[in-house]
Amino acid sequence: INTVYPEARIQLCIVHMVRNSLRFVSWKDYKAVTRDLKAIYQAPTEDAGQHALEAFASAWDNRYPQISRSWQTNWANLATFFAYPADIRKVIYTTNAIESLNSVIRHAIKKRKVFPTDEAVKKVVWLAIQAASQKWTMPLRDWRMAMSRFIIEFGDRLDGHF
């Protein structure tokens, strides 16, 4: 991604990270582990999140060392959203919208198997995106506030897109 888009900032999906972390947690530890994970990703700053991760590791590494190891390994791409104000964080902490769109595109491409030209692929992808955008009726929570912050943060990169 960074090769094609050198200014891109990658944010892994917090929801999926939490789900993967909880996959092997015993049901009796589930609430406590969930609470301690929440302290990491709801921290006000990256430093506070790092401290919460260290506290999590000291509390749970004896039972679930793979959880803190996974968060530490992926920290650079998990902590991206700490650089943004709360308005933007609410919108980018999960990648469900992107994953849904990718699923629609994959489905459209799989139907056809073979494309005569690169232009044909572009047209199928464009049509799939158009169809998905017409079906998308549920507004993103606090989108207007987030969009204002995106314009402040990335104004020059958003010119001509809105």
UniProtKB/TrEMBL annotation:
InterPro entries tied to this protein: Transposase_mutator
Presence of keyword Transferase: no
GO MF annotation list: DNA binding; transposase activity
Gene Ontology biological process: DNA transposition
DNA-binding recorded as keyword: yes
The protein's name in its UniProt record: Mutator family transposase
Pfam families (UniProt xref): Transposase_mut
Family: Belongs to the transposase mutator family.
Known function: Required for the transposition of the insertion element.
Domain of life from the UniProt record: Bacteria
Keywords associated with the record: DNA recombination, DNA-binding, Transposable element, Transposition
